[in-house]
């Protein structure tokens, strides 16, 4: 029997064994006699989810629930099932690179495996957070799980599939879409219900967002200025251009010697002295709590023309006084200056220069303070939970056709209404570079610049107390494709100033944020920043 046939048999064996271990889906209206081991609390919890039949099917098979279980017990059981589902997905994907000697397929499935591994990591963290009653952390990390699962499916969907491997690849895509993403969505909905309404699932509803007039519960006092003092930290290693003084000559070599899995207030500090470092840098997941200190914007420069100049996975990434640049040309499919997956990440006084997706905030919680972001065509993209505070965001001219093009500041990609993700711009300046504004003023009707467009159905972006110059088009916001996401996204504005802030001609699917709900987007509420950013009042 050849390798591909063996794989397909093994694939379907795993798939079959998983599903025969579960009962057929049961309707919400079924009686206690029909679903003998489904307690009232399970039915109440499942009514709050988007995929109710799948919820009942999963929980009715759980041996972790009994008639005395409360809502938290039920959520832990759902978490356990989700974690096991991810393990099955990892088992499936590990076999596929050996299916054929196709490098493209092998690379794709390696990336998919990495996404599933990150999903597993974030799910484990979310389970632990729930056990400690840290609901906002649990929701944030499971939101990351959802994003990684979607990434895996996206990778698979871009493959050119030959006849010999169509079945196995499509089966894996189906498993991720119909089992992993569904179960993750359901747990996210449960966590939202618990956080929003409390422990009694009788009070829970399906997830609603700001678009429907439902706002997150505000539970913390609000303060103003976040300030982190990088000067208090002594470098562990130094990067410079002169090797004779005993320093590392590349940023990556300093990353490679950093201690692994640091936690709490322990940090590995890398001082990057003035100079241009032509390299792509990568911070792996196990290199947590790295701190980079440069000599200033335009002085310490990390630059490349690869897909991504700086790729950050490790949590607790802090950086200051550095320029990140990507010089990929106008025909490049990607040219990101900075991609971050880091949770609890604080970046201050840094610069990001590129064209499309200059800054890719992929997932998790980040705070960008007093940064400068320059580019065009989705300057800032991703599905992270981010606050941009007092940042300067500049549109630059297109390299190939600088006139009659559409530029978008933010392309946020929230996939599920229960994800905690979104982009918040607070006290930022939205403008163009000097070169761009010269082109704009020559004939402003040939230029279109928007505050955001939806990468996915529940995209969320808000601008609060920002200055918007004349380049912002009167409609303010752009669709992605027809009416996709226009009834489910949330695009909000409050207290903005400047010619571009005039709201009289805004698209009908954007909103003015009610003043009493502005605190929803504070550092404390949106990022839980009071727990990981040192704040001076």
Automatic annotation (TrEMBL):
Alphabetical GO biological process terms: cell wall modification
Pathway: Glycan metabolism; pectin degradation; 2-dehydro-3-deoxy-D-gluconate from pectin: step 1/5
All residue ranges annotated as the Pectinesterase inhibitor domain in the record: 37-190
Transmembrane domains' residue ranges: none
Record's keyword terms, sorted: Aspartyl esterase, Hydrolase, Signal
Molecular function, one GO term: enzyme inhibitor activity
UniProt cross-references to SMART domains, sorted A to Z: PMEI (SM00856)
Signal peptide coordinates: 1-27
SUPFAM superfamilies recorded: Pectin lyase-like, Plant invertase/pectin methylesterase inhibitor
Pfam families referenced in this protein's UniProt entry, alphabetically: Pectinesterase, PMEI
Family as reported in the entry's similarity comment: In the N-terminal section; belongs to the PMEI family. In the C-terminal section; belongs to the pectinesterase family.
NCBIfam families: PME_inhib (TIGR01614)
Record protein name field: Pectinesterase inhibitor domain-containing protein
Organism, as annotated: Saponaria officinalis (Common soapwort)
Lineage of source species: Eukaryota, Viridiplantae, Streptophyta, Embryophyta, Tracheophyta
């Amino acid at each position: 029997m050849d390798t591909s046939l063996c794989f397909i048999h093994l694939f379907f064996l795993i798939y079959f064994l998983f599903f025969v271990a579960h009962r057929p889906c049961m309707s919400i209206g079924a009686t206690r006699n029909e679903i003998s081991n489904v307690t009232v609390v399970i039915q109440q919890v499942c009514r709050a989810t988007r995929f109710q039949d799948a919820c009942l099917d999963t929980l009715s098979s759980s041996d972790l629930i009994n008639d005395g279980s409360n809502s938290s017990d039920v959520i832990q059981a759902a978490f356990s099932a989700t974690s096991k589902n991810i393990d099955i997905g990892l088992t499936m994907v590990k076999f596929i690179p050996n299916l054929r000697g196709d490098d493209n397929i092998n690379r794709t499935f390696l990336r998919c495996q990495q996404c599933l591994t990150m999903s597993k990591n974030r799910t484990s963290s979310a389970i632990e957070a729930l056990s400690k009653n840290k609901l906002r952390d649990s929701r944030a990390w499971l939101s990351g799980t959802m994003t990684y699962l979607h990434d895996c499916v996206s990778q698979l969907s871009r493959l050119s599939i030959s006849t010999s491997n169509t079945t196995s690849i499509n089966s894996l895509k189906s498993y991720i879409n119909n089992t992993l993403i569904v179960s993750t969505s359901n747990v996210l909905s449960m966590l939202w219900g618990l956080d929003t309404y409390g422990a009694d699932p009788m009070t829970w509803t399906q997830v609603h967002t700001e678009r429907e007039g439902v706002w997150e519960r505000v539970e913390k006092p609000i303060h103003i200025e976040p300030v982190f003092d990088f000067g208090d930290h002594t470098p562990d290693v130094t990067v410079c251009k002169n090797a004779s003084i005993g320093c590392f000559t590349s940023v990556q070599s300093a990353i490679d010697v950093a201690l692994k899995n640091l936690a709490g207030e322990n940090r590995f500090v890398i001082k990057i002295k003035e100079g241009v470092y032509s390299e792509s840098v990568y911070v792996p997941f196990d290199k947590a709590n790295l701190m980079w200190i440069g000599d200033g914007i335009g002085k310490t420069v990390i630059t490349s023309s690869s897909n991504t100049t700086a790729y950050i996975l490790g949590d607790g990434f802090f950086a200051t006084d550095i320029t990140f640049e990507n010089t990929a040309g106008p025909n490049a499919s990607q040219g990101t200056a900075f991609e971050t997956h880091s949770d609890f990440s604080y970046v201050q006084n840094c610069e990001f220069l590129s064209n499309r997706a200059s800054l890719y905030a992929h997932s998790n919680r980040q705070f960008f303070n007093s940064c400068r972001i320059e580019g065009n065509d989705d300057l800032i993209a991703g599905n992270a939970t981010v606050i941009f505070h007092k940042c300067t965001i500049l549109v630059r001219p297109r390299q190939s056709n600088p006139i009659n093009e559409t530029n978008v500041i933010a392309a946020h990609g929230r996939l599920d209404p229960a994800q905690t993700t979104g982009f918040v711009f607070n006290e930022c300046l939205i403008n163009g570079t000097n070169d761009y504004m010269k082109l704009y003023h020559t004939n402003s009707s040939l230029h279109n610049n928007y505050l955001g467009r939806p990468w996915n159905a529940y995209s969320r972006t808000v601008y609060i107390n920002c200055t918007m110059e004349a380049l912002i088009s009167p409609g303010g916001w752009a669709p992605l494709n027809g009416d996709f996401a226009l009834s489910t996204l949330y695009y909000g504005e409050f207290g903005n100033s400047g010619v571009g802030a005039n709201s009289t001609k805004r698209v009908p699917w954007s909103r003015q944020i009610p003043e009493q709900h502005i605190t929803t987007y504070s550092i404390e509420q949106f990022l839980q920043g009071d727990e990981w950013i040192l704040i001076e009042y």
